[in-house]
Amino acid sequence: METKDIIFELRTKNRLSQDELAEKVFVTRQAVSRWENGETVPNTETLKLLSKLFDVSINTLLGSPRELVCECCGMPLKDSDISREKDGAFNENYCGWCYADGDFTMDFWKQYAAIGGKEKFEEFKKQIIHEFNTLLHIEGLPKVENLNVLSGSFINLEYRLPNGQIVKFLDDNATYLGSQLECEFGGDRCFGIAANMDFLLVCTYEENGENPELVIYKKR
Question: Is residue 118 located within the same domain as residue 208?
């Protein structure tokens, strides 16, 4: 379904007139009419209001253009599985089992308890980003802007060593800070980065993690 049809269906299902919907999301009736005619789509802030009002994700409002996957456990996400912030808003990056009410629910926070809680953890994350950007100097690796909390089972790739041995460097049961980045030189390979309190790891791989190659594993 297209956005215009989704908004019309949600509005009528909730027995709202165009005027009533417009009032609830602080736009004009004409704006709602244009959405439902397919002339325009709501802006980002209005999509957030519609998401909260109708209790559906922004992805659903836009016709599900993305296949949502939890960045912690790798589970495909339906609206009923998506995590929530403290204000009830959807956080489309995680499932409700890994993240709820604005916090991660896993043992992740226990792992970083020594850092001093969420505020100190954010400082730690900024330090890791700084180290990726200043210490490694890997050609084609773009500047790291953000890191997500990732489950080891989701990013623990198998690497083939020169002697033919297959090894993994991460722990399936642990959690890490990481991200996927497109190579600045283009091509069909991208970078995967991961880190914790002990190391920085950079690898490259093809779509769906195929044919991974380790670029660097550096102790902190």
Answer: yes
